[in-house]
From TrEMBL:
This is DNA helicase. Residues 1-32 form a coiled coil. It comes from Paenibacillus segetis. InterPro entries: DNA_helicase_UvrD/REP, P-loop_NTPase, UvrD-like_ATP-bd, UvrD-like_helicase_C. Keywords: ATP-binding, Coiled coil, Helicase, Hydrolase, Nucleotide-binding. ATP binds at G203, V204, A205, G206, S207, G208, K209, T210. Pfam families: AAA_19, UvrD_C_2.
């Protein structure tokens, strides 16, 4: 207690000094009048002062969160303070606060106890001793908590989890938060991994994948500031609501302007489509239909998403395009008017000779504009103005007709051509129908005729785009994050790689949460095979930070029994209430649900979710609760924003989100079949503190009934 008091006093004094210094710097900066003129250099200087002012203001509220006492070999320990942003000392050599991304700060995360410690600095490996690792909580400039997670002078060599457990026990608000003060060593390795690598991360539910990926972006921007820009980095997330849910982490880390998109939105923009095809609620309802027991047992050739996401489909497109150059140029001379002839041989020479370095769509464009210029030159040779006019009119019509004889070199038209019936295909294109499963070929042909497309077609369309067009500089990325990557297909990633410099990817997901069995991957080897071994690195995160031990153990049991999974989540030692099973059938179903909701929310929890099996049930429950005067939000897959509070949603839409309390309804064999263990696993692992399962008569056999029934 005495130690704690003195540590608190010591930190209080240090905080006062730091705040004083920050204030001094702020006053100095604010005293410089704001520049509003037109001189470019001055404008740049003003922008930099403005950003410095904003950073100092943020540092003033929370200057740092950690202290590390470190001494190089043979030297005594020096205290270093680590914050979300570094604060320089105009008068001294050492910064007052070290940015969490700086090399020395890595020790704060990677040091897990033991005799010596080292970190990689620009000048080489630095070795020494860690004397103290201390967490401090400062809110609005006030010191709230001091907790030592390692002290060389006290008993026990390892770094304690106490502060982490305290942090995890807090209730969450509506958005995902940064974790700079408690990044764990295994997460830090991922955050600081080298840029030009395709990182593939398999992480159990709640292992911090999304959070870590966002921190990695902030790190890369700091570490490679000369080579990369925020605008050229992108996070692909499963839907707009998820983008909204994660939207506060990067600004909190002082990083803005990173693009956040769904694959569909991005693809639509590249392809110039007016509306991006989405996996809307209609498609999801189809694939998550409880009554269709056949759905979970279809093979890849019966699942359009998996077939069109496979490298086999890419092979079909390659074969389709293989000879495209040979049938691009129409096999005839061009004659704009009688007597003026541009031979087929000349046109071919332009297309296959002079312009051969360009992609085909560009070559077509170049050849056609050269023909146009040739016409203009020829027109000038006309014997009279009247003859010239006459020729021009004719030439315009014939030029148009000639251009139409060229195949349309545009991704959507080519894709439609691929699915066209043999008899109506344009000359030269090979018939690939025998290589595409009949049902998929027919279905795709039908909707393409109606000028509609599905999300599953986007990888192929983008691939066609990259085969016939050049990828311009403004389309490329310095780094790409793919979240929920188990739902991405190898073909999607292969196409994306064409837009990414140096295969700089962070690909993260959890195969145990692969509930969209109709698309995505079943093994990470499918992704790794897209890159050379030296370009990839694989990480596994097995520790789960979100839920209590009771919830993790319960969810693990579902995976063990339901899918025979062996790689299970290891909980952080944070204990809570037991998972509760509660019968809620027939007439009592709805009243039980609202009673449980009341109990679950009687504490200090801020967010709760009612997870139903289907969208239809979510809608009904939502109506019922609204009628009861309870304020709830329906999440139906089409919403762009996450409102927090109490949410009602089908379990398959809960992926990626988390809630203080989760109530799963209708957990019985009527709603969850033998193939639905992963779906329930996803639902259960959304809960931070409390989990309730409301059920009918027979529970699925992968639910552990060791958990006692808890009457209300
Ligand atoms: N080192 C950490 N310190 C504190 N909290 C952490 C840490 N790592 C993760 N968390 C918390 O754990 C929760 C889960 O994190 P996140 O959503 O990033 O995990 P995930 O692996 O993407 O989850 P899922 O796949 O289940 O959606 C979040 O509340 C996050 O703040």
């Amino acid at each position: 207690m005495e130690d704690f008091q003195s540590a608190y006093q010591e930190e209080k004094a240090r905080l006062d000094r730091t705040l004083e210094e920050i204030e001094k710097q702020l006053i100095a900066l604010r005293s410089i009048p704001e520049y509003t003129g037109h001189d470019f250099t001055e404008q740049v200087l003003e922008a930099s002062r403005q950003s410095e002012r904003e950073q100092l203001e943020r540092s003033f509220r929370e200057p740092y969160f950690g202290r590390l006492d470190f001494g190089e070999q043979g030297k005594p320990g020096t205290p270093y303070y680590i914050g979300k942003l570094g604060v320089g000392d105009p008068g001294g050599k050492e910064p007052i606060v070290i940015d969490w991304r700086a090399p020395l700060a890595s020790l704060f995360y990677s040091f897990t106890g033991g005799e010596s410690a080292s970190y990689e600095a620009p000048e080489g490996m630095i070795e020494g001793l860690v004397y103290l690792k201390r967490n401090v909580v400062i809110r609005k400039g006030i010191l709230e908590r001091v907790a030592d997670t390692y002290n060389r002078d006290s008993e026990g060599p390892a770094v304690s989890d106490e502060f982490l457990v305290y942090r995890l026990g807090e209730n969450k608000d509506n958005r995902l938060r940064d974790i700079v003060s408690t990044i764990q060593a295994e997460q830090d390795l991922i955050i600081r991994a080298a840029k030009n690598t395709a990182l593939i991360i398999q992480g159990v539910a709640g292992s911090g994948k999304t959070t870590v990926a966002l921190h990695r972006l902030a790190f890369l921007l700091y570490q490679y500031k000369e080579q990369i820009t925020a605008e050229r980095m992108i996070i692909f997330a499963p839907n707009h609501m998820f983008i909204d849910y994660i939207s506060e982490v990067l600004p909190e880390l002082g990083v803005g302007d990173i693009q956040q998109s769904t694959y569909s939105d991005w693809a639509a923009q590249i392809l110039g489509l007016d509306t991006p095809p989405q996996d809307g609620s209609e498609t999801l309802t189809h694939w998550f239909d409880v009554t269709n027991t056949k759905l979970g047992r279809l093979n890849d050739d019966e699942l359009p998403g998996r077939f069109k996401g496979s490298l086999k489909f890419k092979g079909i497109l390659d074969a389709f395009l293989e000879n495209i150059e040979s049938y691009c140029v129409p096999p005839l001379d061009f004659e704009p008017w009688e007597g003026a002839v541009l031979s087929h041989a000349d046109i071919l020479q332009w297309f296959e000779g002079e312009y051969r370095h360009y992609p085909v769509a560009r070559r077509k464009e170049r050849v056609l504009s050269r023909i146009h210029r040739w016409i203009e030159m020829e027109l000038k040779k006309s014997p009279s103005l009247a003859a010239m006019k006459e020729r021009k009119k004719k030439a315009q019509q014939r030029e148009k007709a000639y251009a139409k004889k060229w195949p349309e070199l545009e991704p959507v038209s080519l894709y439609q051509e691929l699915f066209r019936a043999k008899k109506s295909m344009n000359a030269g294109f090979p018939d690939m129908s025998e290589y595409i499963p009949k049902s998929i070929w027919k279905e795709t042909q039908t909707y393409l005729k109606k000028q509609t497309m599905k999300e599953e077609d986007l990888a192929a369309l983008l691939y066609l785009f990259t085969c016939i067009n050049e990828i311009e500089g403004h389309m490329t990325f310095d780094h790409v994050v793919i979240d929920e990557a188990q739902d991405f297909s190898p073909f999607q990633v292969l196409v994306l790689d064409r837009f990414v410099k140096g295969h700089s990817f962070t690909i993260l997901g959890d195969l145990s949460q692969g509930i969209h069995y109709y698309k995505g991957v079943q093994s990470w080897d499918e992704m790794a095979s897209l890159f050379r071994p030296e370009e990839t690195a694989y990480f596994a995160l097995t520790r789960s930070y979100r839920s209590t031990m009771e919830i993790i153990e319960f969810a693990n049991e579902i995976l063990k029994r339901g899918v025979g999974a062996e790689l299970l989540a290891v909980p952080v030692f944070r204990s809570g209430d037991p998972v509760r099973l509660q019968s809620a059938v027939g007439d009592h179903r709805e009243t039980s649900i609202s009673q449980v909701l009341e109990v679950a929310l009687s504490g200090s929890y801020r967010t709760a979710a009612l997870l139903t099996r289907t969208l239809q049930e979510a809608k009904q429950l939502y109506e019922y609760l609204i009628d009861q005067g309870i304020e709830v939000h329906l999440i139906d897959g089409d919403k762009g924003q996450y409102a927090g509070g109490i949410s009602v949603l089908p379990v398959y839409l809960s992926k990626g989100l988390e809630f203080d309390a989760v109530i799963l309804t209708d957990v019985d064999t009527g709603h969850y079949g033998p193939g639905d263990a992963k779906l329930l696993y996803v639902g259960c692992t959304r809960a931070l503190h409390e989990l309730w399962l409301l059920h009918g008569d027979i529970l699925p056999d992968y639910i552990s009934t060791d958990t006692p029934e808890n009457g209300l």
